[in-house]
Specification:
alpha/beta; 2 domains
């Protein structure tokens, strides 16, 4: 990983994680939100890529200075057309398949809560459509690595995917992930192929569940909290900020605004 100051290419589209990438201690502070607005006003297209739920993404797409949002670890994307006053929602699975998957996730949920003391369902689960989020430190006392690993293994034992974020273990059925939906978004909304658009795109993240994005983007960036996960990653980001969370995102934004 090299310092963010070494990034010389000015991208047109910025994909970014949310939790602990543009937030600090669970809060979206003025500095990082202001940085998003500055980027937006300078014609950067911002697209959050998050594990957060559909309910949050509806609000983000409508109210934040973004071009769209990819949610639930790639289960869908939402894009609000402000001129037409219409919301585009594209899901990996249709509604009947979502219902079938939910029944299987409910079985997994019961097993995790029984076998992993201290774990809980994420407080935003009631607004999720595609996945199951298990809280290991957002609103519960932080669980140790062994407990987190056990949650992951329970998901896997049922044939589900599982990814660890900075606050949750997210599990789902299907072969989608953040990267696949990013590729879909680029194709649908910009008529771009990810491999051919590397000079035009950038990704910023903070944790192991961002690893597929770090591997796929030549302009991959992490805020400084990535350093505690280095030993867990096969694919590191190319650039790293000196500060953590939203302060790191603001550091990235300020640097991008200097590029010509």
């Amino acid at each position: 990983m090299i310092r963010i100051e070494e990034l010389k290419i000015k991208p047109k589209i910025i994909f970014t994680d949310i939790d602990d990438t543009i937030t600090d201690d669970g809060l979206l502070h003025a500095n990082s939100y202001s940085s998003m607005w500055k980027l937006f006003e300078h014609n950067f297209r911002i697209v959050p890529v998050t594990g957060r739920p559909a309910g949050w993404c509806e609000m983000i797409a409508r109210l934040w200075p973004v071009h769209g949002v990819i949610g639930e670890n790639g289960g869908f994307y939402f894009r609000y057309d402000r001129d037409q006053k219409s919301m585009k929602r594209k899901f990996y699975f249709d509604t009947p398949q979502q219902a079938l998957n939910r029944n299987k996730l409910d079985i997994i949920k019961a097993q995790i809560l029984k076998e992993v003391p201290g774990s809980d369902v994420a407080s935003d689960q009631f607004t999720r459509l595609m996945d199951l989020a298990i809280d290991f430190c957002e609103d519960v006392q932080p669980l140790d690595k062994a407990a987190i690993d056990k949650i992951v293994q329970i998901f896997i034992s049922h044939g589900a995917q599982a990814k660890v974020s900075s606050i949750h273990v997210n599990g789902w059925f299907g072969d989608y992930d953040k990267l696949k939906m990013v590729k879909t978004y680029l194709n649908d909304e910009f008529n771009l192929d990810l491999e051919k658009a590397q000079r035009d795109i950038l990704f910023c993240g903070d944790s192991p569940n961002d690893e597929p994005m770090f591997a796929a983007f030549e302009n991959s960036v992490a805020v400084a909290n990535i350093k505690k996960f280095v030993n867990d990653l096969k694919h590191l980001p190319h650039y790293v900020c000196s500060q953590t969370g939203g302060k790191g995102f603001s550091e990235l934004a300020n640097h991008l605004l200097t590029l010509t």
